[in-house]
Specification:
The chain has 18 helices and 28 strands.
Length: about 725
């Protein structure tokens, strides 16, 4: 991404009014291919399969492509009175709306997890400005259709929270209104910058995300219905040609019977009760006067659990000193894994392609191959012995003809689960004992740092599932084997190691990164939106350094003190003032105020006070009268904020059960916010640049389909775990 962003260097500036706009026709369809960066975990090393012939990736890990089909299902219509979309057009106007429906086609995608989720997304655009007015997602979660809806009622400004954020898997990023096809640098009403660089038939645009911050780079091409590519820290998307789509259809295996096309959903009804982001992210009078305290809904309250350190491998080798089957391979693999851990650490800090890097990588791959061979030999042997009867269940024990035996109740969580899968046959012919084998290959780090663990899996599980509080019995070859609540919490944690999530901010890795990455503005928006408005939990990495400590939030208390100097907010902002406020300025009146509003809504925000003379009827004399009364600067008010955030902890042992309230701790951060005259946050500064959250994420779904290729253990089926225990949030 860095090279792309640097290529967007500004080459000039002009005042042409060639504003970028997209045109859609009813029935038109197009396709986008998107990839998503995997969760920030203990290290940036990618998971590898048990084939043993892969070269690990020591940088970022990204998903395979997901192809979205976008179809224009409504266009050029003005909603009538009583329609829930009426609020997205101005009164007494003939403004029109377009609705685009995004779906996942089974004949263009192989990802079973995405197909299981079957997302259907409706995007409602106001046509005159290509701004998202409404966004609704329908998705399967735990076998049930769920909907979530957002709206934006204030569409008069060039920036737009819905168009400059991604609140769904479907790409929705569009550049702010007023962006030119030409080489320009544009300052928006909130003070953020938009740079555009034109080429032969295209324009590259760089702008800032409106929820969580972060830079977004897009390319617009003449005649295209969507940006031809979009690059962010966490998502990359590209517009496919008809040939691209045709080749993909031909390359994918034929499906016996395609599922029926997704039904039309009541997105209007969903939008009627949507969260309005135009008001949710503003510092209103009540917040300034009283602050706020908010907790997540009880049904979403996270639970405390162990972080299952990867240095111990307790999911495979067991906890509380128990003896388990997989102990028999531990002494053989520990020396290999220890050397791999040390090599991995060195490789992450080296320049790829150097002779030293290649030499260490070759040694790492030799160790990896040796480890895979030992794991396969051991666990294939377990499978063969069970099939051949030399290893069998006798009463409450797992017994071998060689004379050794283990109590079923004392087996490790993964040894129990593998034994359950062996007799259930859920894994479609795959060896279920590859579950602990894969875990040892990818998540066991005997020489790893003390903070390497499963905190991301626990954080997602603690939000998406009920706490396993009781033991559960599973029938294994006619014997009821008990899974303790600790076993279940561990397996639930591992099965949520790579859930679908929205990410904000970027992990800090070293001194080359910006330690202030998650800005106070982004942090304040996130807790205001998710905790105060939605009352659902999100996860923060609570340290700004390179260690990652993921903790879910259950609540927060925020106090706000205005620190704006006297008279600093008295100027009228030409880009955000209402027609009524402009009308009161000397020499303006009703007619000119309407023209000012029309001008900025047509061409984007004024870049300087002097630009008001571009409005018909306003000359230098009027400008001179207004010079000391108006501004285009976004920043006009300041606030000092103290946020105490209540986190649930993973610093408890494996057998812990929560009481009336989950075990947790509190972090308090202070920061200054800058806002415009209306209370819209435009910037801010941390009290301490190295003491604040590093990034944030919101898990929203964990598919139950078994399938290869995810960054979680592909042999641990969440669906199989749900056969043993009901984890559904009530």
């Amino acid at each position: 991404m860095t090279s792309i962003l640097f290529s967007l260097a500004l080459t000039g500036c002009n005042q042409d009014k060639d504003v970028i706009q997209l045109d859609w026709e009813l029935g038109e369809s197009f396709h986008l291919a998107a990839t998503y960066k995997h969760v920030n975990v203990k290290a940036t090393t990618s998971a590898v399969s048990l084939d043993g012939d892969e070269t690990p990736n020591f940088t970022e890990s990204w998903s395979d492509e997901v192809v979205w089909t976008y179809q224009v299902v409504e266009a050029g219509f003005t909603p009538e009175s009583g329609d829930s979309l009426r609020g997205f057009v101005q009164d007494d106007t003939d403004e029109t709306l377009t609705v685009i429906k995004a779906t996942i086609d089974a004949d263009l995608n192989l990802d079973e997890e995405v197909l299981e989720a079957d997302p259907v997304v409706y995007m409602v655009f106001r046509e005159d400005r290509d701004r998202l007015a409404g966004l609704v997602t329908f998705v399967n979660v735990d076998g049930e259709r769920q909907e979530i809806a957002y709206s934006a009622s204030d569409l008069s400004r060039s920036y737009n929270v819905l168009s400059q954020s991604m609140l769904t898997l479907a790409p929705t990023f569009l550049a702010p209104y007023g962006t030119r096809w030409s080489d320009t640098s544009l300052t928006l009403e909130n003070g953020s910058l938009v740079d555009s660089v034109s080429g032969d038939g295209y324009t590259d645009v760089l702008f800032e995300g409106e929820l969580g911050g972060g830079l977004i780079a897009t390319r617009y091409e003449d005649g295209m219905p969507w940006p031809s590519w979009t690059v962010t820290d966490h998502v990359e998307a590209k517009l496919l040609t008809e040939d691209d789509v045709s080749r993909r259809r031909q390359a994918l295996p034929a499906v016996a019977a395609l599922p029926e096309a997704p039904a039309d959903f009541d997105y209007r009804g969903a939008l009627a009760t949507s969260t309005d982001l135009s008001t949710a992210l503003v510092l209103d009078d009540a917040t300034i006067a009283e602050g706020w305290t908010s907790y997540v809904y009880d049904e979403y309250k996270p639970w405390a659990g162990s972080w299952w350190p990867q240095s111990k491998g307790d999911l495979v080798f067991g906890y509380d000193g128990r003896a388990t089957l997989s102990d028999r391979i531990k002494s053989d693999i520990d020396p290999i894994k220890t050397e791999m851990d040390e090599l991995q650490k060195a490789l992450r800090d080296m320049e790829q392609g150097s002779s030293d890097y290649d030499a260490k990588l070759a040694t790492y791959k030799e160790n990896q191959q040796e480890l895979v061979e030992k794991l396969l030999d051991f666990y294939d042997g377990i499978q063969a012995d069970l099939d051949g009867g030399t290893l069998r269940i006798e009463g409450t024990n797992l017994t071998h003809d060689d004379g050794w035996s283990y109590a079923l109740a004392e087996l490790s969580p993964m040894d129990k689960m593998a034994l359950y899968e062996h007799f259930s046959g859920n894994l479609q012919g795959n060896n279920p004992w590859y579950m602990p084998a894969w875990e040892l290959l990818n998540h066991y780090s005997p020489a790893g740092g003390s903070w390497w663990g499963h905190c991301n899996g626990w954080a997602a599980a603690a939000i998406l599932t009920d706490e396993p509080r009781e033991d559960a019995g599973a029938s294994i070859d006619g014997e009821t084997v008990g899974f303790t609540h600790a076993d279940l919490k561990g397996l639930t944690t591992e099965s949520h190691y790579s859930t679908y999530s929205h990410f904000y901010g970027e992990r800090y890795n070293d001194e080359d990164d910006d330690i202030k990455d998650l800005s106070p503005k982004a942090f304040h928006q996130l807790i205001s939106f998710y905790l105060k408005e939605q009352r659902i939990p999100l996860v923060f990495d609570t340290t700004a350094g390179d260690a990652v400590w993921n903790y879910p939030v259950e609540g927060a208390q925020v106090s706000v003190e205005e620190t704006t100097p006297a008279n600093a907010a008295s100027l009228v902002n030409l880009n955000t003032a209402t027609a009524e406020e402009l009308d009161e300025l000397p020499g303006i009146g009703e007619t000119l105020s309407a023209r000012i509003v029309e001008h900025r809504e047509t061409y984007g925000p004024f870049q300087a006070v002097e630009d008001i003379t571009e409005v018909r009827g306003i000359g230098n004399g009027t400008l001179e009268d207004l010079q000391d009364l108006v501004t285009v600067d976004a920043f006009q008010r300041t606030y000092y904020v103290v946020a105490s955030v209540y986190f649930v902890t993973d610093g408890v042992d494996e057998t812990h059960l929560d009481g009336a309230e989950p075990e947790g701790f509190t972090e308090t951060w202070g920061y200054t916010l800058e806002a415009d005259a209306d209370g819209t946050v435009v910037g801010g500064t941390w009290d301490q640049e190295d003491d604040h959250p590093d990034f944030a994420w919101v898990p929203y779904n964990n598919p139950v389909t078994w399938g290869q290729g995810s960054s979680e253990n592909p042999f641990l089926s969440y669906g199989s775990l749900l056969e043993i225990v009901d984890l559904t949030r009530e």
